[in-house]
Amino acid sequence: MNANPNAQPSPTLEAAPALRPAWRNWAGNQRTTARRVARPGALEELVAVVRETRSEGLPLKPVGSGHSFTSIAATDGVRLVLDAYASRVEVDQERRRARVQGGMTLRALNALLAEHGLAMSNLGDVDAQTISGAISTGTHGTGTRYGGLATFVEELELVTGTGEVVRCSETVEPDIFAAARVGLGALGVISEVTLRCEDAFRLHCDERPMPLATVLTELDELAASNEHFEFWWIPDTERTLTKRLNRLDPEEAAQPLSRAREWWEDAVLENAGLGAACRLGRRAPRLIPSINRGITRLLSPRVFSDRSDRVFCSPRRVHFVELEYAVPRAHARRAFAAIQDVLTRLGVRTTMPVEVRFAAADDVWLSHSYGRDSAYFAVHQYVGMEHEPYFRAVEEALSDLGGRPHWGKLHYSEAATLAERYPRFSDFLAVRDRLDPDRLFANEYLTRVLGT
Ligand SMILES: Cc1cc2nc3c(=O)[nH]c(=O)nc-3n(C[C@H](O)[C@H](O)[C@H](O)COP(=O)(O)OP(=O)(O)OC[C@H]3O[C@@H](n4cnc5c(N)ncnc54)[C@H](O)[C@@H]3O)c2cc1C
User: Fold this and answer.
1) Which end of the chain is more exposed for a tag (fewer CB within 10 A), N or C?
2) 70 lines ligand 1 (CB under 6 A)
3) Could you count the other beta carbons within 10 Å of the beta carbon of residue 75?
């Protein structure tokens, strides 16, 4: 079932325009040039690339859509592109299971599931990532009863650093399964992912501005009473934008946004309008508090309903960098106050919001929500504006609350600190030793966060 009709005749390409050795991530803050790019289209080609690269002594790095802000996907060795390894393998509508190749994007996955009357139970903000890239860093959405995307994985197939093909699940190689669902690209190339889905559903979206003080007072109730609750706070103001997503009754007719309204609100107001405000703020930072107050005056309520993935995910055209920390949910208010304190103390100027989301505890060893219900705090900065002092100070403040950094978002933590935050860190390292003894998948980022 692994033969792919889109496969290229050769697994290694050097000249195809989309596959040039020079690479940058979505935010443009990570750039590298690989020695060469490999693009397998079938399992045997993928295994051959792993074995060849290993025998040459070069590092190998599978890359998804480049949506991580950290250098987790960077390599100066061989970059492995899986866009020709991105097909459906099997969809079992009755068991609500989908098995897909590792390079499939979430957008393609959502469309495939919809064709079969299925859907993912929860998703993040965007659908550009690949399924393997998304799970590998612990990508999550929001909802106190839902874990991140990795918690919907039922089985994985990996090509290890020695070129072996391994399958794992709760019952087969359970240690590999506990490690590899959020594997940071350190354990092997994920060649297939089997996902636990559910029957397709529609979501009702209720977005409305609310005073910050009310959101903080009612936070537990808002998070508990909505299936998916999140809010954005615009610094320099006392206002937030809240988003509540709940399942639409199957009997009720959906009321999607018209194409024109969607274009106006998402493309023009949210993206072009925010982009213009950010550019102005970057040119004249002293205007930022007024710009932010102006942005909050433009916030207005919006209610609609649609297919679940269309409601979970929206386009993001304004480029930014981001740090995100997960703290035990009980510390949510203290974490928020700590971020406010950093903004004031450092006099940070930013037109970008602080985003607050929730996730349920899970059992994936390097998941940010391992063993504890979490609240996620994301801080952003517009590209080209100084972010490091701000992000470092937020990291320090949230670390004091036992925070764990998102692997795909900027952070400055190193292995020694992370080992204290993740109770199964040393078990993860043992699986790494077993699956990648020669550190074929190592790069600077992994050496920093996992050690050599
Ligand atoms: C605009 C934007 C919105 C975002 N929204 C969210 C959000 O809502 N929630 C959230 O949690 N995060 C979010 N993120 C972060 C993003 O989901 C993660 O960084 C994710 O890992 C990116 O996936 P990718 O396919 O781009 O992978 P990449 O960034 O290319 O790679 C990430 C890691 O996955 C590994 N990898 C990729 N493919 C494979 C494979 N086949 N086998 C093994 N390892 C592999 C890479 O080696 C690397 O270690 C967002 C990022 C952006 C830019």
Assistant:
1) C
2) no
3) 25
Q: Establish whether residue 75 lines the binding site of ligand 1, counting it when its CB lies within 6 angstroms of any ligand atom.
A: no
CA 66 to ligand 1: nearest atom: 30
Contact 342, 409 (CB under 8 A): no
Per-residue pLDDT of the chain (452 residues), as tens digits, is: 333 434 443 444 445 545 889 999 999 999 999 999 999 999 999 999 999 999 999 999 999 999 999 999 999 999 999 999 999 999 999 999 999 999 999 999 999 999 999 999 999 999 999 999 999 999 999 999 999 999 999 999 999 999 999 999 999 999 999 999 999 999 999 999 999 999 999 999 999 999 999 999 999 999 999 999 999 999 999 999 999 999 999 888 889 887 766 766 676 667 778 888 999 999 999 999 999 999 888 888 999 999 999 999 988 889 999 999 999 999 999 999 999 999 999 999 999 999 999 999 999 999 999 999 999 999 999 999 999 999 999 999 999 999 999 999 999 999 999 999 999 999 999 999 999 999 999 999 999 999 99
Task: For residue 135, give the ligand 1 atom closest to its CA.
Answer: 21
206, 308: one domain? yes
**For ligand 1, atom 53, which residue shows the shortest CA distance?**
67
> Which of 199, 218, 239 delimits the end of a domain?
199
CATH number for the domain including 370?
Answer: 3.40.462.10
CATH number of the domain within which 188 lies: 3.30.465.10
Other beta carbons less than 10 A from residue 254's beta carbon:
14
Q: What value does the CA radius of gyration of the chain take, rounded to a whole number of Å? A: 21
Residue 58 domain-assigned (yes or no): no
The H or E element containing residue 447 is helix 444-450
In terms of domains, do 361 and 213 share one?
A: yes
Distance 107 CA to ligand 1 centre (A): 13
- Please state, as a whole number, how many other Cβ atoms lie within 10 Å of the Cβ of residue 135: 28
Say yes or no: CB of residue 64 within 6 Å of ligand 1.
yes
Bridge partners of 206, per DSSP, are: 244, 303
Its pTM stands at 0.94
Q: Is residue 71 part of a domain?
A: no
